[in-house]
Amino acid sequence: MRTKNLADLYDLPPVEWSAVTDRLARNITQAPGTGGPDRHTWWLTTLDDDGSPHTTGLGAEWVDGSFFFETGRTTRKGRNLARDPRCTLAIALKEFDLVVEGTASIVTDPGLVARLADVWAAGGWPCRVDDTGLALTADFSAPSAGKPPWHVYELIPTSAVAFATVEPGGATRYDF
C-alpha cells in the first residue's frame, strides 16, 4: 500500500491506516445517538448505465479486513454493480470521514455468507441465510434493499481517503 499525506501543507501528520482499521473493527451501528451527526450511515455510490453516479445509504460491515454490504440483485445498485462493479463506500465517524473506491463482487462462499449474517444479526438486523446458502433473508430490511433474497458483496479497495476530524487532524490517501 502506498500512502500520500494530503495535509502536509499544514504540517499535519498522515492518518495511519491502522488507526482507520482499528476504528472500523469496533462496533459501528446505525442506531440513533451512536455517531456521525447522530448516527452512522454507510453510503454506496454505483454507476448508472449512462455513467452518472447513484448514491444510497445501506448497512455495511468491516469484517476480517474487508468491506461487505448487501442488497438485492434487482435493486438499482444491484443492477448497476452487475453491469459495472466499480463503486465507492463512504462513512463519517467521530474520528474521521472515510471514502473507499474499488470494485464489488458477490460473495459465493456459503460459510462467509453465514458469518456475515451472524455479524448483521448481532448488530441488530435479524437476518439469516436463505435456503440457497448464498444470500440473506429477513422479516424486514431497508426499503432500498428491495425484496429478499439479498446478496452479500465484498468491496475490494483500490484506494481510500481518510480525513481526520479530531486533533491533530490530517488527511491521507491510500493506494492498495
Structure description:
By secondary structure, the chain is of the alpha+beta class. It has one domain (2-175): Electron Transport, Fmn-binding Protein, Chain A (Pnp Oxidase, Chain A), CATH 2.30.110. 16% of the residues lie in helices and 38% in strands. The protein has helices at 17-24, 76-83, 110-122; strands at 2-5, 42-47, 53-58, 60-63, 66-71, 86-92, 96-106, 128-129, 136-137, 151-164, 171-175. The strands form two sheets. Strands 1, 2, 3, 4, 5, 6, 7, 10 and 11 form a nine-stranded antiparallel sheet that branches. A hairpin with a 5-residue loop joins strand 2 and strand 3. The N and C termini lie close together (5 Å).
What brief labels describe this structure?
176 residues; 11 strands; two-stranded antiparallel sheet; globular; alpha+beta; 9-stranded antiparallel beta sheet; 3 helices; Pnp Oxidase, Chain A; 16% helix
